[in-house]
Amino acid sequence: MEDRVLRGFSAGIAGGIAMNIWSFISGAMNMTTLRISDWAAVIIHAHTPPFSLGETLFSLLGQLIFSGVLGIAFAYLVPPAGSRYLIFKGWLFSVTAWFLIYAVTTLFKVEGTVPIPLMTAIANLIASSVFGLVLAAALNALTVGSGSSARLGMVPAMKPLDDDDETRPR
């Protein structure tokens, strides 16, 4: 995929899907009181949980689009930073985004997001980490010339034989 915006958006969506899978699992295991889609729902619907199925699905869509936008931002940050240690850079990017989102909701005292129990913060940090790792891996896989097939070059099966070679049996 040659277009950086499309690569970044696609990688962000992949990371967002993985993040939400973890978030729904951690929610089902009562590890969190606020799933990632619930954060989006609080912002989109301007009320605290519980949310209807329609509100949850709409918020999930909004959160995935936001994940895609974060993927675009990461895709544009990678070339100046270099592609070495891309997985670490993806993780660092996502944890920074997690921290900034937590900071903004705390500074503005967004109802439904403050205060945050410790287990919710940990579960959401793990979700953010999953996002960053999948984002970087997906972006790397979608980048032209960096996938596993790009590393496989055409190599001759054997050295070409010279017609003038005297050691060759005839």
Label this structure with key terms.
170 residues, transmembrane helix
Topology as a string of helices (H) and strands (E): HHHHH
Discrete helix count: 5
State the domain count.
Answer: 1
Number of strands: 0
Distance between the termini: 50 Å
Helix percent band: 55-70%
Poorly predicted regions are 148-154
Keywords: Membrane, Transmembrane, Transmembrane helix
Transmembrane segments: 5-25, 57-78, 90-110, 116-142
Summarize the structure.
With about 170 residues, the chain is mostly helical. The chain has helices at about 5-30, 35-45, 55-80, 85-105, 120-140. The chain has one domain.
What would your notes on this structure say?
The chain is mostly helical and 170 residues long. Helices cover 65% and strands 0% of the residues. It contains five helices and no strands. The longest helix has 29 residues, at 53-81. Mean pLDDT is 89; it is low at 148-154. The chain crosses the membrane at residues 5-25, 57-78, 90-110, 116-142.
